[in-house]
Amino acid sequence: MSGSIPFYQKQHRHYDRCYRSKEVESAVSQYQSSSSSYATRSRASASLSASRGLSASYSGLEESRLSPIPKRAKSTYLAMDKENQIIGYVVPIFRGSQEYASGLSDTEEARMKEGAGYMARRNLFTSGLEMERTEQTSRKVSTRQSAEHISLSKRIYENEEYHKCMNEDSLMHAPEFVIKPRSHTVWEKQCVRLHCTVSGWPDPRVVWYKNNVTIDPMARPGKYKLRSSYNVHSLEIDRCDFDDTAQYRVSAMNSRGELSTFASVVVKRFKGEVEEALPMPRHGIVSEYGITFETHIVDGFGVSFGREGETMSLGAMVIISPNLARYQPVVQWYRDDVLLQPSKWCQMHWSGDKATLTLTHLNKEDEGLYTLRITTKTKYETYSAYVFVRDADAEVEGAPGAPLDVTCQDANKDYVIVTWKQPAVDGGNSILGYFVDRCEVGTTHWSQCNDTPIKFARFPVTGLVEGRSYNFRVRAVNKSGMSRPSRTSEVVAAMDPADRTRMRGTSAPWTGQIIVTEEEPAEGVVPGRPKELEVTEATKNYVVLSWKPPGERGHEGIMYYVEKCVSGTDSWQRVNTEIPVKSPRYALFDLAEGKAYRFRVRCCNSAGVGEPSEATEATTVGDKLDIPSAPGRVVPTRNTDTSVVVSWEASRNAKELVGYYIEASIVGSNTFEPCNNKPVKATRFVCHGLVTGESYVFRVKALNTAGLSECSQESEAIKVKAAIASPTPPYGISVLECVRDSMVLAWKQPTFIGGADITGYFVDYREVINGVPGQWHEANVKAVSDRAYRVSDLKENRRYQFQVRAANMAGVGIPSLPSETFICEEWTIAVPGPPHDLQVTEVRANTLVLLFKPPVYQGRDPVNGFYVDIKEADAEEEAWRGVNEKAISTNYMKIKILKEGETYVFRVRAQNKAGVGKASEPTEPVLAETKPGTTEIVVDIDDDGVISMNFACSNLTPDSKFVWSKNYKEITDETRITVATSGEKSKAIFNMPAEDDIGIYSCAVTHTNGESSSYTLSAEELKKLLEISHDHKFPIIPLKTELAVELQEKGRVRFWLQAEKISANGKIEYVFNDNTLSQGEKYKMNFNKDTGVIEMIMESLLQGDEGTFTFQLQDGKATNQSSLVLIGEVFKGLQKESEFMCKEWHRKQGPHFVEYLSYEVTPECCVFLKCKVGNIKKETVALWYKDGREVKGDGNLTFTEGVLNLEIAQISKKDAGVYEIVMKDDRGKDTSTLNLTEQGFRDLMNEMFSHIANSSTALKIQSTEEGIRLYSFVSYYNEALQVTWHHKDSAIAFTDRIKSGVVGEQLWLQIIEPTEKDKGKYAIEFHDGKGGLKRTVELAGQAFDDAYAEFQRLKAAAIAERNRARVAGGLPDVVTIQELKALNLTCNISGDPVPEVVWLKNEREIVSDDHYIMKFESGKYASFTITTVNTTDSGKYSILVKNKYGTESADFTISVFSPDSKK
């Protein structure tokens, strides 16, 4: 096989050096040197030139550079012998640089000759040729050359790194695998190394994964070694074991993106290779831990049913002991024995104690047997259950179900075959065919591949674009419509299979031989004939051709033309006339069905079209694959109470069988439903989800690619019911007693009794001599019903082993495992033997009942008591503890110390006078829980007084029975108790209840999951039941209420009671003081038979009505009576109230007050006097009075909707008084009075004060020029409001320095010239006659400092404002004066200190002289005098006064005129 330059060498200059370490560079240099020398010497041999070895000299390499290398398909580099067996690798000579075509030192070449690679090449290519000897150079020369080579490599590397840093952006690119890791197959205990070369800038970060789990070398030191050097990354696995068989992934990531590639490692064993679908783990103690792990899967998932599109989760609790915090088992999920990998369809989660598999979007492909496998370092545990997936509701009624298992096969550059499986549901109409859709990856557009539906479940899709990836899906169609689309296929790429193989990283096994070759140039070569043309598939819709490329085809890629001709003619017609195909596969459509055709293929490239291949044999267009025949006889057998096992005979002569569909129908319904929606290949299937007790028939259909077969014959009807099987073996054989020639054995009941009661047990024994067991002998010919048996005719001091078999109506089960070896010698111990036959019943969350039988061996004295021990199931032996401190005498005990959710085991010890004997065998672990649907015994007493105990069970099986016991001994004598059972209920009836019936009664239901309950009948309980029974026998009429009295309108008196239950035939007698009353004017009686209310009404109570009233009731044999005594003060009070109500009734006949006069204070502190009146009309008048004087409404009186209001705004002391309102019309009048004097007025004001207090704002701090002010605003202030100011919780005594006051609605406290003593908490208290209200503020710390600083600032500002220089007045704005006159102006000046005074004219200072005279006297008066005014004195004048607190000016204007100008 000729070599070629790999694509990664053409694209990456750094391949030849940059990824290598110095050691690798030296080895490659040696390899190239020896290769080049050998190539030079081998040119003389003609036979060698014709071989697949190295055939070009270095001059040939020079010539090859002058002509372009034609494009061609990528080659593999495997050396083959004549029988096409792989004998080594063929490594091409690097063409990237002349440097790598030249040799290195002779010393390196000499060392290379001694290597395995050199010997291999000599054997392959130079057999019969003598090897030239080479001269060895000195170590000094070799060292110098090596040093120069290393120096040059370092300079090249540094130069490249420099340019990368200088222009990072132009070089930045996503990671790319130049060399991908290849897969390996190794033996156990060998080492394996996966390595890859990654390019990318910035340098990618590389992470290795095992089965998508990150590899952490620190987790298992020494197991994994990760190395990275010059972009070469490697993973070394030390001493591979079977658990290292996995898929490994290496991921490279930088800022430009992420890329991953995969490689597989398969580890084989030398002996005992496991051929099972689920690999076996290692057994034995693990050296890493030195312990053995025990794994238990609990709370597993059961058979599950889902529907397409739903989400389903399967989970199970996993218990691993010992529990190591850092150790995690291998958790794997399988479907139909195929390992599942995480994907968008299934997600796996391990929480440390629970494994969960989530099927995110159910499809029929998800149906199957799911297996959870937990693998530790010593063993593994599995748990399996089936998952059924039903079709989703069709979008169109009557449409078929969606196809499933869409896969792509034989993918090529522009061609792929899509296959699928037909659905089990056809919608009631036969499926007409299928449509195949495709979608290019990266888009969401689906395009239909076929115009007409196809019947076959496979279809060749052509016209794909090379290099692009596609998804496919399939839809079924019948006359009702189209089905939902199937689940999309895996992504498939349209590319050459050889390229796909190289991308997947497959490799040939290592042979120790490396062969270096170079391809011969072959430009402009017309390709030869295609090889091995054949028809691989022929249907009535299409024919598929397949062939192999020719051997002579040049370097460039080739394409193909397909030709056909009708058989018997020689007229060849090209099928693909426009575009040649790239793949060596082609599907021909539109052929005439029934005609025979021959086919041939031509190759073509740029050099021309080659010769045609050999024509195929004549092929007739039509379906070659027949639909399978119907399966044979279908036989259903019972399995569980919801499933049936269906088996059938396979379809005869079925080709390419895909599987079978099973359908079930309830007898008489004539409607078949699919039992599986995914074909099964076996001829046996368990159909789940059936209804218990229903009868079903079954039928089966076979399918292959051609379609579904006819249905098989229907099976015989079978009723869904748990199958009966022979019981499993008993276990726990122990010795209860031993004498000289016999031994009493005990054992435990089988865990599975086979669905039928155990009829007995058979015991076998054998003698063991010197450790060698003998033959088994039957101990009993007739089955024993007890789980204890005495084996007789044994020999003293001999050793024996025993085994026990259980039997039921299905037969005798297999024997138990042989017991321990027991010695037949007489027991002489004083204490009793172990109790036996321990049973647990009535299990609840916190209680259970333990039953046991006394020991067979009593000891020296009779047994006088028992002790019960308990411990947690997973606890050590030292954890056993006693339940009872005192020995019990009964053979049962109710244990009440359980914790819900905990699992326990129990044992019993017997005692006699000599002491406590050996403990019994422990029970099986029992979980303390109350199972759903658990019921208890209910005691009932019927109308005839019959007492019965009732128990119901909804989980009955056809073989279940109710077993009643007293003190846990079955009741067989019905003299005292009669048992009656009907359906799911059973009752135990006491015939004559008496003290002899006291005890514990229990009821257990056989063939259930421990359904049982008990009821304790004590002496007190019996007495209570007898009383109730007596009441039922001699009943009384129950009363809801005793005889009572109430007053009605007009003061009527109503006597009444209500009977809880009385028939329409009931009779009532009304009695007063032993005299029977009758209906009349004074007494009116009424009996409502629907409600049971009995009443007697009297218009009024007179003096003679004092006494006892009695109602006597009788209804059949039931009677009752109730009395009411009305005498003394009780009678007088009732009579008085009756008279008052009568008067009230008369008052309300005219206008009256429904609500009497009252007041209301609003939040705005307005007072309203209001009342509510009734029975008014337009003529009704309302008059208000205060202190006897009518009050004018003044527009504030309102009279609407029966409500009268009188508003008192801004109430004060003058508003105190007695207010009255009178309502009157022609029917009468009514009066209401409200006293608002003294206490009444104070209460009103206090309520108003409360409103004012609640409206107050929080105390705030304000600084003034005098000091600090605290203030609060209220919504309304009344002068009668009383407030108290507090400082440090003490009332403030007001002084000249601390004052309070009110301004508008502001209440304030002024602190003048505050000091440190004034710090603290201040409060204002509003008094409202009750608790009052306080508003507080803290005047301390920063708040005080800030307020004090502001006070100082305001004070200083006030002083400055008060003392600054001012012009008080006296100056006019304008002065008009005649020339030659004298002018004198005077103004007042104030300021402290005395201000300075400056006069200005036109903003220039005036100096005092004879013309201008300016005076400032007493610091208060300033004068300005002009002695003789002239025209030059006109202008703007100002006086400016100033001192240290400020400056002020006053302006005036002087206008001088001459007398002449005025005239």
Describe this structure in words.
With 1463 residues, this protein is mainly beta. It is built from 14 helices and 103 strands. The strands form 25 sheets. Strands 48, 49, 50, 52, 53 and 54 form a 6-stranded antiparallel beta sheet that branches. A hairpin with a 2-residue loop joins strand 85 (1217-1225) and strand 86. Helix 2 packs across helix 5. The chain is extended. The N and C termini lie far apart (141 Å).
Describe the protein's topology.
Layout: H1 7-11, H2 22-41, H3 46-50, H4 58-64, E1 78-80, E2 86-90, H5 106-113, H6 116-125, H7 139-166, H8 168-171, E3 173-179, E4 184-187, E5 192-201, E6 205-210, E7 213-214, E8 224-229, E9 232-237, E10 246-254, E11 257-268, E12 294-298, E13 304-307, E14 312-321, E15 330-335, E16 338-339, E17 346-350, E18 354-359, E19 368-375, E20 380-390, E21 404-409, E22 415-421, E23 433-440, E24 447-448, E25 458-462, E26 469-478, E27 481-482, E28 492-493, H9 497-503, E29 514-515, E30 531-538, E31 542-548, E32 559-566, E33 573-574, E34 585-589, E35 596-605, E36 608-609, E37 619-620, E38 634-640, E39 643-648, E40 657-666, E41 673-674, E42 684-687, E43 695-704, E44 707-708, E45 718-719, E46 731-738, E47 743-748, E48 758-769, E49 772-773, E50 777-778, E51 788-791, E52 799-808, E53 811-812, E54 822-823, E55 836-841, E56 848-853, E57 865-872, E58 881-882, E59 892-895, E60 903-912, E61 915-916, E62 926-927, E63 938-941, E64 947-952, E65 962-966, E66 969-970, E67 977-982, E68 985-990, E69 999-1005, E70 1012-1017, H10 1019-1033, ...
Parallel strand pairs: 2-29, 4-11, 13-20, 96-103
Antiparallel strand pairs: 1-2, 3-5, 5-9, 6-7, 6-10, 8-9, 10-11, 12-14, 14-18, 15-16, 15-19, 17-18, 19-20, 21-22, 22-25, 23-24, 23-26, 26-27, 26-28, 30-31, 31-34, 32-33, 32-35, 35-36, 35-37, 38-39, 39-42, 40-41, 40-43, 43-44, 43-45, 46-47, 47-51, 48-49, 48-50, 48-52, 52-53, 52-54, 55-56, 56-59, ...
